[in-house]
Amino acid sequence: MTAVVNCAWVSADLTAWHTDPFMSEGRHSHTWVVTVFWPVTPWRDGRVMRQALSTILAAWEGRDLPPELWSQESLAATILALMGNGDVRGVRVERADFPSGCELWR
Questions:
Q1: So where are the chain's domains?
Q2: pLDDT score at 11
Q3: What percentage of the chain has pLDDT greater than the value 90?
Q4: Residue 77, Cβ neighbours under 10 Å: how many?
Q5: Is a pLDDT exceeding 90 seen at residue 14?
Q6: Mind giving me the DSSP string for the chain?
Q7: Predicted TM-score (pTM) above 0.70
Q8: Are 8 and 28 in contact (CB under 8 A)?
Q9: What angle do CA 66, 55, 61 make, to 5 degrees?
Q10: What top-level class would CATH report for the domain 7-105?
Q11: Is the pLDDT of residue 63 over 90?
C-alpha cells in the first residue's frame, strides 16, 4: 500500500546572480520560485513558514550566490537543510523564466 502525505506549501521568489561553471554564459541573474512543503498535520501557519523561507532567501536576494550554490539543485538542498526544523519535507526550485526546476524530498 502506498502512503499518502498531504502537504501544505508556500512560495517566495529569489532573484540573484550566479556563474554556471559548465557553460560560457558568464555571470548572469535569474529569478527562481522557491516552494517549501510540510505535512498538514500538525498544523503550521503558512504565514510563519513563508516568513522563515523569505528570511533565508533574503541573505541571497540581489547578490552573487556562492559558487557552491550555482545550481537549482544545490539551492534546493541548502534550503531544505536550513529549514530542517522537522517541518519542511520538500523544496521545489523553479526558474521563473524557463520551464525547468527540481524537487528534493526527505
A1: 7-105
A2: 98
A3: 70
A4: 17
A5: yes
A6: ------EEEEEEEEEEEEE-TTSS--EEEEEEEEEEEEESSS---HHHHHHHHHHHHHTTTTSBPPGGG-SHHHHHHHHHHHTTTTT--EEEEEESSSS-EEEEE-
A7: yes
A8: no
A9: 45
A10: alpha beta
A11: yes
